[in-house]
Specification:
Layout lengths: L6 E3 L2 E3 L3 E5 L5 H13 L2 E6 L11 E6 L5 H12 L3 E4 L2 H13 L7 H11 L11 H10 L7 E4 L2 H11 L3 E5 L8 E4 L2 H12 L4 H11 L5 H6 L5 E5 L3 E11 L2 E13 L6 E6 L3 H14 L3 E10 L5 E7 L16 H10 L14 E4 L2 H5 L5 H4 L1 E3 L5 H31 L4
Parallel strand pairs: 3-4, 3-6, 4-5, 16-17
Antiparallel strand pairs: 1-2, 7-10, 8-9, 8-10, 11-12, 11-14, 12-13, 13-16, 14-15
């Protein structure tokens, strides 16, 4: 039966819970979180594509194949085989798959255990849709007394114009169901806003989605492309300031552990962070605690903020129902997410891992190295390298070199176009 908190092997009671990580995209933080879970005392299994970084670490005891064309069947089979105590998604598509599986199993008497497991892993099922609907999430946060930017759904260009006439420019446009900055555009003029709206609401091209799946093994766009679904687009007031983020472990609406960071550097303007600074921020702490309680969340979640330039006020702007880049960092009591979850699963006291560093500046690897191999942050910050996992480290280095090569080729092509332009 899935979800047995206390396992028995050869008649001996075991308090080592099994966690199933679900990954659809080749994202290195998934492997880092697996390592942290294993260190916390969990048995870790994973369902992921072939050649995923999760398959490069000894922390994962068993891997199950993820098939992008049959995702729910892949997950159901992995859950049945692993019989985990908890499921943790590593990306947004994984979360969507698990919520979809939960809905599909409704009414099936032989699926009660799996549905209960998914509820235990995420929290209250009535909150499942909220994590995708940006405007709804912001409305709930505002009702909780949390500081948020004005947000509303815009269904066409006329509504977009009315919204910007009322709220002003710049405007931040976001497409539901996207992540990693892919579905976010900042428009400073009405022309930019209209062009961004058209792009965000456009359906993924089937050919591009298939190519992305076959070449990059990223199936994020495949099902939206096949189903011809247009994402809802929300408009949000632009907050000038610095980006910040929180990662939390929670259990049935109770906050167990949290990490709060300011973003120091990013891969690119709308991309993931590469350098972060650990902070104590009362506004961020209060906001995540309120939302965890209100939505009755369980598992691992991330929250994004903007710290207003002049006032330093924290504005909540988004939720990420999955692990984030920083969730694996063990930074002391109350700041060890895997240990807090393991304790909740076993009903024992939290035993945090040794604190990684006293340096509040965290340089993510290979992210910052991929951005700039000569970055000063590689020396001034705590460089978060998986030294204990040589295969994973090798994969990180190979990925970074490939990224550098692609950037170099792109820059060379742009330079050649500039040089040859006058001859045309």
């Amino acid at each position: 039966m899935a979800g047995c908190y206390h396992r028995r092997t050869a008649g001996v009671r075991s308090l080592k819970p099994t966690v199933l990580l679900v990954a659809t995209s080749h994202w290195f933080p998934a492997a880092r979180f697996a390592m942290a879970l294993a260190q916390a005392g969990c048995r870790v299994e994973a369902v992921c594509p072939s050649r995923h970084p999760l398959r490069k670490t000894n922390a994962v005891q068993r891997n199950h194949n993820y098939r992008g064309v049959l995702p729910l069947r892949s997950l159901a089979g992995a859950i049945d085989d692993a019989k985990p105590d908890l499921i943790i998604p590593a990306d947004d598509l994984s979360t969507r798959h698990l919520h979809h599986l939960y809905r599909n199993l409704q009414g099936r008497s032989n699926a009660a255990d799996t549905r209960a497991l998914i509820e235990r892993s995420f929290g209250a099922p009535e909150s499942f849709p909220v994590v995708y609907e940006r405007a709804t999430f912001m409305k709930i946060a505002e009702a909780e007394g949390i500081r948020v930017p004005a947000t509303g759904v815009v269904i066409d260009l006329k509504e977009l114009k009315n919204w910007t006439n009322h709220a002003g420019l710049p405007v931040v446009l976001k497409a539901d169901g996207t992540s990693g900055g892919d579905g976010v555009r900042v428009a400073r003029t009405m022309d930019e806003a209209e062009a961004s709206f058209r792009w965000l609401q456009s359906q993924p091209v089937v050919a591009r989605a298939i190519k992305r799946g076959l070449v990059n093994r990223d199936y994020t766009l495949l099902w939206p492309a096949l189903l011809r679904r247009r994402p809802a687009v929300s408009a949000q007031t632009f907050i000038a300031g610095r980006e910040a983020t929180s990662a939390v472990a929670c259990w049935k609406g109770e906050l167990l552990a949290s990490l709060h960071f300011e973003v120091v550097h990013k891969m690119y303007s709308a991309g993931p962070a590469t350098v972060m600074r650990l902070v104590d921020n009362a506004d961020m702490s209060a906001a995540v605690e309120k939302m965890v309680r209100r939505l009755k969340l369980s598992g691992i979640h991330g929250f994004d903020f903007m710290l207003e330039r002049d006032s330093e006020n924290a504005y909540l702007i988004e939720i990420n129902p999955r692990i984030t880049q920083v969730g694996h960092l063990t930074l002391g009591a109350g700041r060890d997410l895997p240990a807090a979850l393991c304790a909740a699963l076993t009903g024992t006291a939290v035993q945090p891992a040794p604190k990684l560093t006293d340096n509040t500046l965290i340089t993510l690897f290979p992210q910052e190295w991929m951005r700039d191999p000569s970055s000063p942050y590689l020396h001034s910050g705590y460089l978060d390298v998986p030294w204990g996992e040589p295969e994973l480290l090798r994969a990180c280095v190979q990925r970074a070199r490939k990224q550098h090569s692609l950037h170099a080729q792109r820059n060379w092509q742009q330079n050649m176009a500039t040089v040859e332009a006058p001859r045309a």
